[in-house]
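Rotation project, supervised by the postdoc (A.L.). Task for the rotation student: set up a whole-complex structure prediction and record inputs and outputs verbatim in this book. Inputs entered:
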Amino acid sequence: MGIRLLMYLAVILLGALIGAKVKIGEKLSGRLGSIQTACLLLLLMVMGIKIGMDREVINSFFSIGYSALVISVFTVGFSILGVILVSGYVTGGRK
Amino acid sequence: MTGKILGAVAAGVALGFFLLPGWVLDYTDLIIDIGLMLLLFFVGIDIGMNRSVFGRIRNMGLKIILLPIMIIMGSILGAAIAGTLLGMPFNESGAVGAGLGWYTLSSILMANYSNELSTLAFIANVVREVMAFIIIPLVAKKIGFLEAISPAGATAMDTGLPIISRATDSETAILAFITGAICTFSVPIIVPLILNL
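Outputs recorded:
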């Protein structure tokens, strides 16, 4: 995982370097946003394909999906609540 | 955005389940890796264009660490409460929540303990990841940018990051990467710890 983290960091830093050095106009910036959204939706679709093609995941979902769903909802809900408690302190009251 | 994300994931699941031949699965990981790298590169460009964020993050200092701590604690507590409602031992359900969305590792970590729990950890964390994709834009809009990092957990540094970046701003994207990295490194420590309570 450490290598993967470094890879992600390197790609983000490369992007940041280009973003900082190359002047990107408003028009191109808007177009980059649209490309980003399209790539994101495509990536999510491929991730969906991966889940859909895994028969074991789909079958398990039908048998233990309810428990998994309840645990996930509570997990996500309480982690949001946790951050609500500290977000004002972390940002110094800034929204 | 939430509708588009839900549509993309649902279309993918339906395509994978009903239409696509088995060999496609050999290439999905590669496509996901390439797509993810491209999106992280775009996240980097956004950050580079807003360099003032670094100063603001520096001002937050060590307080940033509270974000992963609260996400980890909230995830474990939430899962333990859910487990109690479902009639499960709190340590088992708490350990499932401690997977923080990293479904492969959390299920491997529980494989020696129980096969059933390992499967539940896998599915619950897959569900968490998909749920995160769908609700991050909603949480960012209705509750707040920092709170939008929470649903992603460990995936805030990889698959969740492009969504957080699109739904919030560069400052939150950097905080999400740091939070996701800390959560990721915590999973192999906290899952066995909670399981053995």
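Student's summary: Residues 2-195 of chain B form one domain.
Supervisor addendum: The mean pLDDT of chain B is 91.
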